[in-house]
Specification:
The complex is a heterodimer of chains A (about 210) and B (about 250). Chain A has about 210 residues and is mainly α. Helices cover about 70% and strands about 5% of the residues of chain A. Chain A has a two-stranded antiparallel sheet with strand order 1-2. The C terminus of chain A is likely disordered. Chain B is mainly alpha-helical. In chain B, about 70% of the residues lie in helices and about 5% in strands. Chain B contains 9 helices and 2 strands, in the order H-H-H-H-E-E-H-H-H-H-H. In chain B, helix 2 packs antiparallel against helix 5. Classes of the chains: A mainly alpha (about 210), B mainly alpha (about 250). The interface between A and B is large, with 73 and 76 residues.
């Protein structure tokens, strides 16, 4: 849904997105401890698989993005995790694209990482239900931020896209609602069952 | 346990492409897609489409598979492409009641459809049959940071396992007559499924990490891959280069 394929965006936008993504990846990878790689990879695989499950919305359906949840659980490591997921999707299934990979990473990973980072201290302190609501807000905001980034990338690429942006942005509204509910319930559940997942994202272990 | 860390002998036999170094395929796909994105003439793009489709078919992608994927690629674009003829100002091409389809809007929409499909067919053709393991090894030899390569290899490995785990849990839901609907119950149930999968994954990751350290894993992964650039790669690169050059030249001249 948030994957912009090859052939839509203009060259400067592709280059800008690519540079931002490389910067984020370089930072995240330099902070990533070798010992956290299996954990990051397994969670990346889970999120990859879950995003293949279609959630019905009336006659249509959406696929979960879970970028808020990934940001909350993985912290900065969400950037390489989402990069790997998008690369595998592009190569295995032909979704997304090669030249737009950088823009897609920025659109999906950056909002989750930034918002998840802001919410992390709050999530570590609060209990089940409150944490669930905080996480729901993070998830909804992350989807809206992704919609904003996609719209921005399209608008910067061509003024022809601008009139269509409202419709495209509207398609994100059901996703934001679904993501908020799912992420809220997941985080409340994790708080009960295995709170240490939320208490110590990898980046804090590294210190 | 359908996937391993070492390249499997031949999961999908693609004799012709597999004689190429995977690095050649990655670089060729990147350059070809970059050229396709830069083309400006719809005629040249239309001429490139059969080549891209032929490439994908000769690489072993079945026609049905290719069709399904291209349709899916188009599914994403529906909103954009359908709206462009209505929103781009310009002389009318067709007037249907209150709707006016503008000529420049139609042109833009056609360009986008062509570009997206040619690029998708090129990627499917050159990279579609590349197993994630060989992709990871090739990217490592192209200079991708080691940690990122490890992450890619581990993720590819665990995707198969996570998929089985998710399928098992979805089966148990089905056995209890669960059907996905637009309802809070569906979302809550799926959320608990996701939560359970995350907890299982973290516990598995701890076990895997410990097991690897028990086997003296010191943060370095031996990448067993001895393919190298050969005459086949040179011939392929030269051929593709000529085709791409011809496309660019005709594109800029017309």
């Amino acid at each position: 849904m948030a994957h912009i394929p090859d052939g839509i965006l203009s060259l400067p936008v592709l280059l800008g997105g690519g540079l931002l993504a490389v910067g984020g990846l370089a930072l995240a990878v330099s902070r990533l401890d070798e010992r956290d790689i299996p954990k990051t990879a397994i969670l990346a695989a889970v999120f990859f698989v879950v995003s293949l499950v279609a959630v019905p919305i009336g006659p249509s359906s959406v696929h979960l993005l879970l970028s808020g949840l990934i940001g909350i659980v993985l912290g900065l490591a969400a950037i390489p995790a989402i990069f790997v997921g998008l690369l595998l999707q592009a190569v295995l299934f032909g979704f997304g694209g090669l030249t737009s990979l950088g823009v897609d990473v920025v659109d999906i990973a950056f909002p989750g990482v930034i918002l998840g980072g802001f919410a992390a201290p709050l999530l570590a302190r609060t209990g089940g239900v409150v944490a669930g609501f905080v996480a729901a807000a993070v998830a909804a905001a992350a989807v809206i931020a992704t919609a904003g980034c996609v719209s921005l990338a399209l608008a910067l690429s061509s003024t022809d896209y601008v009139p269509s942006l409202t419709v495209i942005a509207l398609t994100y509204v059901p996703l934001a609602v679904v993501e908020a509910i799912v992420t809220g319930v997941v985080v409340a559940y994790l708080k009960q069952v295995k709170p240490e997942i939320l208490a110590a994202p990898p980046r804090e272990v590294l210190g | 346990m359908s996937e391993t860390f070492l390249p499997a002998a031949d999961l999908t036999p693609r004799p012709r492409l597999d004689r190429l170094d995977p690095r050649t395929r990655i670089l060729a796909a990147t350059v070809a897609v970059a050229v396709v994105v830069a083309l400006r003439s719809p005629l040249v793009l239309a001429a490139a489409l059969p080549f891209a489709v032929l490439l994908a078919l000769s690489a072993g992608t079945t026609a049905a598979d290719l069709g399904r994927r291209l349709v899916h690629v188009e599914g994403f674009l529906l909103a954009l492409v359908a709206l462009l003829p209505l929103t781009v100002p310009g002389p009318a091409w067709l007037v249907v009641g209150p709707l006016t389809l503008s000529q420049p809007g139609i042109d833009r929409a056609v360009m986008i459809l062509l570009r997206v499909n040619v690029a998708a067919a090129v990627i499917l053709g050159l990279l579609g049959g590349l197993e994630p393991v060989r992709l990871g090894h090739a990217l490592a030899r192209l200079g991708l940071p080691r940690k990122l390569v490890h992450l890619l290899l581990f993720t590819a490995r665990f995707v198969a396992l996570s998929r089985e785990a998710a399928a098992r849990r979805l089966d148990t839901l089905r056995a209890r007559a669960f059907r996905r609907r637009t309802s809070l119950h569906t979302l809550r149930t799926l959320a608990h499924l996701v939560g359970r999968l995350v907890v299982d994954a973290v516990e598995r990751a701890e076990r895997v990490g410990e097991a690897m350290r028990c086997r003296a894993f010191a943060g370095r992964f031996a990448l067993v891959d001895d393919t190298c650039f050969g005459p086949v790669d040179r011939r392929f690169a030269a051929g593709l280069g000529l085709v791409l050059l011809a496309l660019v030249v005709t594109d800029r001249l017309t």
